[in-house]
Amino acid sequence: MKRILITGGAGFIGSHLSERLINDGNEVICLDNYFTGHRSNIAHLLSRPNFELVRHDVTMPYFAEVDEIYNLACPASPIHYQYNPIKTIKTSVMGAINMLGLAKRVNAKILQASTSEVYGDPTIHPQPETYWGNVNPIGPRSCYDEGKRCAESLFINYHQQNNIRIKIIRIFNTYGPRMNAYDGRVVSNFIVQALKGESISIYGDGNQTRSFQYVDDLVEGMIRMMNTDDSFIGPVNIGNPGEFTMLELAEKILELTGSNSKIINLKLPQDDPMQRKPNIELAKQNLNGWKPLINLEEGLIRTIDYFRNTTI
Ligand code: NAD
Ligand code: UDP
After folding, report:
1. pLDDT tens for each residue of 135-177
2. What distance in Å separates the CA atoms of residue 122 and residue 135, rounded to the nearest whole number?
3. Do the Cβ atoms of 15 and 9 come closer than 8 Å?
4. Mean pLDDT score of the chain, rounded to an integer?
5. Mean predicted confidence (pLDDT) in 187-198
6. Which one in 3, 17, 75, 273 has a CA-CA gap of 20 to 30 Å to 27?
7. Contact criterion met (CB below 8 Å) for 228 and 292
8. CATH number for region 3-178+213-241+278-293
9. Nearest CA to ligand 2 atom 3
10. Is the pLDDT of residue 257 over 90?
11. What is the model's pLDDT at position 312?
């Protein structure tokens, strides 16, 4: 049994990771400032003796004796990370410094939840880890993209300079139960709109693509990455290479919900990436046979079921 700190543990992904690590018999400290996460995401874990919840902001130092740290704290949806861009940068950069400092002090292994956004609007397709990306450093997404890129740099440098045991994963668009219904991400937006009979809001012409990964596949990949040999530090892409246009996604969600909602086209946000698809060969080779198991239709059915049974 390990003692594991999860920053951002009350968020969408963090709550699934907390649940899995507790069920595996570990002791979990879930740290969150509840900016985009909610106590309701982890309410079902509060009575578990190996679960502890701490209200804390990662921009401030935090100390605890732990064996492993999963650093997830950061708003992840464009409307939330653009709400207070300076705070988003501070969370990524100061949060990484504080958590790496903790890892150094207590000799913990630390995993960074980086993102496919480090590739920006990619000019190489699909994206391998060797691609350096195409990011606008002064655009509306830069607070998130550059914050995450700087965090990767901090991780590598703490590893090289101080021998900290690090792991970097680049997460591609992930969806599933406990997504925030109103944080503007495409899967939750379309499902909520379809269930409420509201118009489905496609930004631009809907020909931009994304590759959607079900949250259970991600959690499995994260844990396998944490458990790899110390010499494998990443960065490694974790995603599902199935690639869909937003129009295809909207049509699939309309079909699965049986909704009569109409599709409307709204303005495409600035710097919205045109295409995104992970090359996952590195993950397949190094994560003990990991590969995504849940296809889009199956994952959407589970997610729609969650939203049907949740007050939205
Ligand atoms: P989320 O918004 O549901 O979770 C983020 C959590 O971090 C929330 O609980 C929030 O309250 C917390 N948080 C934010 N700022 C904080 C701070 N200063 N101090 C402490 N806690 C703070 O988002 P998510 O989808 O669960 O994303 C989790 C992580 O995975 C993020 O780092 C995100 O960048 C990364 N990621 C997610 C995706 C995705 O598709 N969901 C893709 C790539 C990367
Ligand atoms: N999108 C859309 N309608 C929505 C929300 C998003 O068409 O209601 C588009 C958005 O422009 C982007 C894609 O869906 O091209 C994915 O958006 P999301 O915010 O989920 O993730 P990200 O852009 O960060 O990959």
Report:
1. 999 999 999 999 999 999 999 999 999 999 999 999 999 999 9
2. 8
3. yes
4. 97
5. 98
6. 75
7. no
8. 3.40.50.720
9. 202
10. yes
11. 80
Half-sphere exposure of 289 (CA within 13 A, CB side): 0
Q: Are 257 and 207 in contact (CB under 8 A)?
A: no
Q: Which ligand is nearest to the CA of 253?
A: 2
71 ligand 2 Cβ < 6 A? no
C-alpha 35 to ligand 1 mean position (Å): 9
- 38 CA distance to ligand 1 centroid (A)? 11
pLDDT for 311 equals: 81
Q: Residue 235 Cα, ligand 2 centroid: separation in angstroms? A: 24
Does residue 284 surpass a pLDDT of 90?
A: yes
Which mutation among 5, 30, 32 tests ligand 1's pocket best, with the greatest number of atoms within 8 A of CB?
32
Q: Could you list the active site residues?
A: 144
Pairing, β 209-211 against β 243-245? antiparallel
For residues 298 and 176, give the distance between their C-alpha atoms in angstroms, rounded to a whole number. 11
pLDDT at 157 (0 to 100): 98
